[in-house]
């Protein structure tokens, strides 16, 4: 299982661009699970959101992300999120209105 997170850039020269991060939190590989758990924990702490296990809980959170460019031999250059950091004195975005019990498309899924 994984969580596919989309970040919207809101500052500098890259306003409105999107950066994606796949957080792998259930995997046969114990190391992959550990890395995913650390990334998810870091994201939750950085946004200050009380995460209850649902992807909807993370919608509207704000944080800084550290992004590097990785040259993937199969896919070419791509963004790679290396960390999450809290925004000082951030104002929380209002929670989105519930649209039924349907999961958003970024909820993730099986490998």
Question: What is the structure about, briefly put?
Answer:
The chain is α+β, with helices and mostly antiparallel strands and 111 residues long. The protein is built from one helix and four strands; from the N terminus they run ββαββ.
Any overview of this molecule?
The protein is of the alpha+beta class. 16% of the residues lie in helices and 30% in strands. It contains one helix and four strands, in the order ββαββ. The protein has one helix spanning 30-47, and strands spanning 2-8, 18-24, 64-72, 76-85. The strands form two sheets. It has a two-stranded antiparallel sheet. A two-stranded antiparallel sheet has the order 3-4. A hairpin with a 3-residue loop joins strand 3 and strand 4 (76-85). The longest helix has 18 residues, at 30-47. Mean pLDDT is 81; it is low at 93-97 and 101-111.
Q: Major sheet, described briefly?
A: 2 strands, antiparallel
- Can you count the beta strands? 4
| Global mean pLDDT | 81
Provide the succession of SSEs: EEHEE
Strand content: 25-35%
Morphology call: globular
Percent range for helical residues?
10-25%
- Span between termini: 6 Å
- H/I helix tally: 1
Keywords:
alpha+beta, two-stranded antiparallel sheet, two-stranded antiparallel ribbon, 4 strands, 30% strand
List the helices and strands and how they pair.
Elements: E1 2-8, E2 18-24, H1 30-47, E3 64-72, E4 76-85
Antiparallel strand pairs: 1-2, 3-4
């Amino acid at each position: 299982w994984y969580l596919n997170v989309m970040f919207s850039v809101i500052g500098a020269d890259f306003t409105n661009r999107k950066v994606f991060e796949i957080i792998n939190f259930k995997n046969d590989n114990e190391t992959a699970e550990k890395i995913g758990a650390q990334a998810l924990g870091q994201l939750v702490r950085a946004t200050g959101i009380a995460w209850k296990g649902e992807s909807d809980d993370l919608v509207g959170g704000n944080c800084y992300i550290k992004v590097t460019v990785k040259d993937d031999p199969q896919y070419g250059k791509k963004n790679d999120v290396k960390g999450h950091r809290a925004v000082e004195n951030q104002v929380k975005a209002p929670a989105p209105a519930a649209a039924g019990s349907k999961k958003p498309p970024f909820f993730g899924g099986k490998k």
